[in-house]
Amino acid sequence: LPQDSSDDIEDVSLFDADDDVSRRSKKSKIRHPVASFFHLFFRVSAIVVYLLCELLTSSFIACMVTIILLLSCDFWAVKNVTGRLMVGLRWWNQVDDDGRSHWVFEARKVSAQGGKTSSEAESRIFWLGLITCPMIWVIFAFSALFSFKVKWLAVVVMGVVLQGANLYGYIRCKVGGRKNLTSMATNYLGKQFLRQ
Questions:
Q1: Helices (H), the chain
Q2: Residue range 3-20: average pLDDT?
């Protein structure tokens, strides 16, 4: 199929590696194994350290620092590297010359052939890790609250906040940065209610 050269020029991608990626197979092959590994490594390690911390050491400070370092590394890696490579999404905050803060949510453009440039396996790994781990931290928050482990509550809240921020940012990227998530959820629930 001949392609119009003006379409190729106008379809500017956000990422440098889009040309090479679009030529590779897109089905279930993991094209970024290191990014996929680190996407899960930091967040799962933080959960494992939280669960095994009292068995491994009696020092609360060492456990807290280790967990917060793992959560911080996870936040940075997911926000700056794995989201861009694995699913083609990225978000950030920028401050203009007037001092006003603007949130930017971007999604990779669809390639000229109409196919997606991320593999299904990487997408599943990304979203599974992004959704399940904050849910686990919320469960930890309730268990720390109801068992009166106040010192652990600060650590768990850090887990909820850091991983929840990435989840919120990537959901906004996926559904569109300009749309209001509350109104979308209300419309969806309203449609479901009317169907019943």
A1: 5-10, 18-23, 33-56, 60-77, 120-146, 150-175, 181-195
A2: 42
